[in-house]
TrEMBL record:
Species name: Flagellimonas hadalis
Family assignment from sequence similarity: Belongs to the ribulose-phosphate 3-epimerase family.
Class of the enzyme per the UniProt entry, highest EC level: isomerase
Cofactor: record remark: Binds 1 divalent metal cation per subunit.
Reaction catalysed by this enzyme: D-ribulose 5-phosphate = D-xylulose 5-phosphate
PROSITE patterns: RIBUL_P_3_EPIMER_1, RIBUL_P_3_EPIMER_2
A GO cellular component annotation in the UniProt record: cytoplasm
Keyword S-adenosyl-L-methionine carried by entry: no
Protein name: Ribulose-phosphate 3-epimerase
Keywords: Carbohydrate metabolism, Cobalt, Isomerase, Manganese, Metal-binding, Zinc
Amino acid sequence: MDKTIIAPSLLASDFANLQRDIEMVNQSEADWFHLDIMDGMFVPNISFGMPVVEAIAKHAKKPLDTHLMIMDPDRYIKTFAELGVDHLTVHYEVCPHLHRTLQAIKAEGMKAGVAINPHTSINLLEDTIQDIDIVLVMSVNPGFGGQSFIENTYQKVKDLKNLIQRKNANTLIEIDGGVNAANAKKLVEHGADVLVAGSFVFKSKNPTETIKDLKERTL
Ligand code: DX5
Ligand code: ZN
């Protein structure tokens, strides 16, 4: 099996020292940057928008994995592509024409991701899974960093892995929310390919070492 992809979420970084934290991720064993875009409508919080993504893109030397927690994401697909985003993930719950949205993301040269809230069944992806590059399984309710991991996620990941295999799809499973040293290995054992970690990385004493630790734990 391939090594687990570690994607630190900059939401938990020090925004007053963003360049420093980006350099830390550049130098670390992390694989992707995870960017959380929140609109204060789909989720009860506002994070950051285009000017900040543009600033991050200038310094980041690893793929930008961008998680849109916004209503009507179709409006901004082209803009994020122009900003240099590599993966664009939209929420299942706000996409009435999900298949069309996935095609639009790919047409802009990005990998297409679909995020599902804790209450959203993986069965709803049955008809689109072959068109999805990444399924982002929310293991907390989206909107804030630092929340506790929802235990039901393990079963969900296992079911999703079965669906992917059954459909012969080439889809990565990404877990987002409350990921830490205590649940990382178990998540990978259930089928996770990508682990997002915000607070666990950036609130630790030595974020570089914490990333390394997550990587080694999930070998
Ligand atoms: C939550 C975001 C997450 C968040 C994870 O809505 O999607 O990416 O940054 O933060 P932690 O790892 O602290 O739960
Ligand atoms: Zn996220």
